Amino acid sequence: MKGFVPTPVSIVDLMVTKLFKEKIPQKDDNLLDPGCGTGAFIDGIIRWCTLHSQELPNIIGIESDPRHIPEARRKFQDYPSIEIRNEDFLTNIHGKFDYIIGNPPYVSITKLTEIEKNQYRKLFQTASGRFDLYMLFFEQGLRCLEKEGRLVFITPEKYLYVQTARKLRFLLGRFFLKEIHLLPEQTFGDLTTYPTITTVLNVPPKEPTDLMFRDGSLRHLMLPREGSSFLPSMNGTSDKKPGYYELRDVCIRVSCGVATGADSVFIKPSREIDPCLAQFAFPTIAGRQLSIDSPLLHSEDSIIVPYSRDGKILPEKKLGCLGDYLSHFGNYNKLLKRTCVSRKPWYAFHENPPLNHILRPKIICKDITIRPYFWIDHTGEFVPRHSVYYIVPKNEEDLESLCTYLNSEEARSWLEGHCQRAANGFIRLQSNVLKHLPIPRSAFEHSNKRSENHESGIQNENPLMAIVKV
């Protein structure tokens, strides 16, 4: 099984206790361990039943990796109520179960083959966007859950708030989300996943969810059931504020920087750029080059761009010396190894850069940071790398006021309450979160005046009407 990670015994026992809390298993009950590996959770169930003098329920362990099957079958050969199957949990029908417990594999879409991606997209609602296998395990588990049944999974916490998991949150909204227990990030040693134990009951959702936070505090909350992020409810913040825009309302673009797919070819120290290539080069900056200690942007690197300033890729016959550079043996081989060449010219970036937006005065920020901070690119000449987000206001006059607000304590608090967690206490900014950042109307003197003039009949374009969605 891709993404298999052994579960610590202490966590297994904790999860089994949650599984049987308020509902002791009976001999005729059916229990499923999908992706059972060598049987860690089945061992935990045996321990619990022995400790509480209970007979084992009927247990089925499913494992797709044949390497784990012999050990699991050998371990439980003396238990007639335990069956180990060498099957794929995601592609087979398994019936209904009173209990389901497991540690689904953590495998991102980038680790799947095209055949697997297409197969899963046909089978699962949650296989959308940049999905992870554990989301599909959740959906399949909910399908297999008997009425009034209980499911306990340990997964990364990301499903609580990332846009990719919106459909999973919607599905969970049809069930009673009994408990969300946020575990210490060191639970799996050096593997930082921000693990979370989720307990789901197949009954109508009519009670608050118990949330156990990493600081030991406990809260009872009614979480949204339409698929939106759980973070605002968990952090006690509101998404809707009277007298506020959203960032996307006042910007042409809020987006991640350029992904070339071959930085070693396209990114060079500026001093090493051949004079012939200077016409294709722009100063570029990566997240690691941004420091809160330095309010000014500075970079000694340049990005070589095979696109015109309107974002259109240059015809190969017009590349000139750039074509010679890119077709050099070492560079050419690196470019051909990229997955994007199957659908784009061999010298194209992995993602087409919207230079008509990028090459404007803008605000930029790091994608992963301990504390959100924003800088202004007054010249508009910097091309941000993929580890940088850029924000282009509809009115250049709003750059200063917008950046000032983005660096305010109010904005920082909102971002810290809504953004995805990264390792070591860092947070991960994302465009879909940034776009919804509340911005006070009072911060936009120029935008407000233009809006008032338009409403008064003066022929000025209202900069807050057309929202360009990225």
| Total E-strand runs | 22
How large, in whole angstroms, is the Cα Rg? 26 Å
CATH H-tier superfamily of the largest domain? Vaccinia Virus protein VP39
N-to-C terminal Cα separation, in Å? 36 Å
What is the second-level CATH architecture of the largest domain? 3-Layer(aba) Sandwich
Number of helices: 15
**What is the overall pLDDT average?**
88
> Would you tell me the structural class of the helices and strands?
alpha/beta
Using the alpha-carbon principal axes, give the shape.
globular
CATH level 1 name of the largest domain: Alpha Beta
Poorly predicted parts: 450-470
For the biggest sheet, the summary is:
9 strands, mixed
Strand coverage percent: 15-25%
What's the structural domain tally?
2
Strand order across the largest sheet: 3-2-1-4-5-7-6-8-9
- Provide the CATH topology of the largest domain: Rossmann fold
**Helix share, percent:** 25-40%
Concise structural overview:
The protein is α/β, with parallel strands linked by helices and 470 residues long. The protein contains 15 helices and 22 strands.
Could you characterize the architecture of this molecule?
This protein has 470 residues and is α/β, with parallel strands linked by helices. The chain folds into 2 domains: 9-235, Vaccinia Virus protein VP39 (Rossmann fold), CATH 3.40.50; 246-455, Adenine-n6-DNA-methyltransferase TaqI, Chain A, domain 2 (Alpha-Beta Complex). Helices cover 26% and strands 21% of the residues. The chain contains 15 helices and 22 strands. The protein has helices spanning 9-20, 40-51, 69-75, 114-123, 133-144, 166-172, 231-235, 263-266, 321-326, 329-336, 355-358, 399-406, 409-418, 431-434, 445-455; strands spanning 30-34, 58-62, 82-85, 97-102, 145-156, 176-182, 195-201, 209-212, 218-221, 244-246, 251-256, 267-269, 281-285, 301-304, 362-366, 368-369, 374-377, 383-384, 388-393, 420-421, 427-428, 438-440. The strands form 5 sheets. The chain has a 9-stranded mixed beta sheet. The protein has a 4-stranded antiparallel beta sheet with strand order 11-19-15-17. A 4-stranded mixed beta sheet has the order 12-14-13-18. β20 (420-421) and β21 (427-428) form a beta hairpin. α1 crosses α2. The protein is globular and about 80 Å long. It starts with 8 loop residues before the first helix and ends in a 15-residue tail after the last helix. Residues 450-470 have low confidence and may be disordered.
